[in-house]
Amino acid sequence: MSPARSRSTLRILAATAALPLLLTACGYGSQSTDGGDQAKAASSGKKLSADSVKIGYFPNLTHGTALVGVQQGLLQKELGGTQIKPSTFNAGPSEIEALNAGSIDIGWIGPSPAINGYTKSQGKSLRIIGGSASGGVKLVVNPKKIKSLDDLKGKKIATPQFGNTQDVAFLNWIAEQGWKVDAQSGKGDVSVVRTDNKITPDAYKSGSIDGAWVPEPTASKLVSEGGKAILDEADLWPDKKFVITNIIVSQKFLKEHPDVVEAVLRGSVKTNKWINANPDKAKASANEALKKLSGKALPAKVLDPAWKSIDFLDDPLASTLDTEAKHAVKSGLLEQPDLNGIYDLEPLNKVLKAEGADEVDDAGLGAK
Hints:
The protein has helices spanning 3-16, 37-42, 64-71, 74-79, 92-101, 111-120, 165-176, 200-206, 218-224, 251-256, 258-277, 279-294, 300-308, 318-330, 346-354, and strands spanning 30-32, 52-57, 83-89, 106-109, 126-135, 137-141, 156-159, 191-194, 211-215, 228-232, 243-250, 310-312. By secondary structure, it is of the alpha/beta class.
């Protein structure tokens, strides 16, 4: 590789290191949590091949499978005497770092940091082993300034972070309108303002942004402040589904403890089934988990629409992850990645078959 190309690659990797998909997109670091009394009560039974399994996730609604699964003890139940040790993270890169360091074994995470973690390690660090959620991303605008999508030209629209999944999606949408924006600076026919989700509502209220392409619950928070959702990203995808949260595992842990991985996936599948069968109870459980983790529950005017816009499912929607990677390449934020081998869906399909559910597809990107 030439020195110039090497510098270019390093620059791209540095940029894409900021590819967290998610809502709490500020800061690094994690917080350990005991997983709740119900998880403790369920931690009996036969121990599997590991004494414990360290799982990571975000204190965020799009990670509702993990929030509810831990809160209700549904994950722990499948693990028997193997104890869950949960940690929460504020951004995708920090969770990838924790996985690489062995601080967590399995994690719920968005597609962009999963892609970045896999490609930076040359395919050696992780595998995507399951899906968790789809949807939950909207374009919310100030209705006094923006009446239609055509009015976005010349306006200031926030995304959560440079190069994150929503940033890539918005840049791709802009390009499809025939408008020009410099991906690095965000300047052009539309001003793309990278703004932490935690401060986006205040930026909206102050008038420093005219709208935002953001995930839940930030989108619903903006609506509660008078904003109007004029585009749901789900409407841009076939079948209105696209991956927002995956389940990943370190390849080392997958190789050494396949029974534990299978148990976590079984717990995830059963949790998603419970969520979809009991939407109100699940929503309340997720909010209670958020309250324990952040000290504050979401108000109903934010929680209800946010929860409704997220689909909890087991399918990782592999073809949409591949499309999202292509969008990042097209936007100039990522060099063409080699995603072959990023998925290992054999354990999940074993679980789904046992549950009488349809198996899922890896879009040709499975481990050989």
